[in-house]
Design goal:
This protein is of the alpha+beta class and about 200 residues long. It folds into two domains: about 1-80, Glutaredoxin (3-Layer(aba) Sandwich), CATH 3.40.30.10; about 85-190, Glutathione S-transferase Yfyf (Class Pi), Chain A, domain 2, CATH 1.20.1050.10. The chain contains eight helices and four strands, in the order βαβββααααααα. Strands 2-1-3-4 form a four-stranded mixed sheet, with helices on one face. The chain is globular, with a radius of gyration of 17 Å. Keywords: Transferase. It holds the Pfam family GST_N_3. This is Glutathione S-transferase.
Amino acid sequence: MKLYHSQTSPYVRKVMVLLHETNQLQDVDLETVAGTPLSPAAPLEGKNPLTKVPALERPDGPTLFDSRVICAFFDARAEAGFYPEGARRWDVLTLEALADGILDAALLMTYEARLRPEDKQWDEWVEAQWVKIERACAALNQRWMAHLSGSLDMGQIAVACALGYLDLRHDARGWRGGNDALAAWFAAFSERPSMVATRPPS
């Protein structure tokens, strides 16, 4: 199998952390690609019509894309239970969706600053994205700490990768303010070997 990959993509990082945690890294060849919404990665054309990473090329089926689909595939393949059955499953899926929502907003902020001409940048729109992130971090800190501190699942991995991306691209915004429990959890979770091995370059 071939995973189309970028070291700085937080969505790719989710998949990579899962591969480390389930001992499947050796089963995947990594192909590093680079692109932006304005200049998509050429190797992805014909693989993922959205030309986004991650994308997983398989010998026995169509290419899988979107990090949630790929993570679910590898979890099922390893029978790892990171998407558990029963009531907890819905909590895991909700946490992963919340984490991906943080990433969506943070990436829009990044693209606004990097890709849009300075005279066309919209400060109010950027701030609206950050408000979403602030609300999400507050919800994690107030509602989800018992779950985050429990047995390892995909919700925890997704949240950790989202917070790591905030540190990478928007550290000056200070997401930790008022979120002491979440910050302490993230500091400890970040020391897992899978997180250390997948830290993006500064």
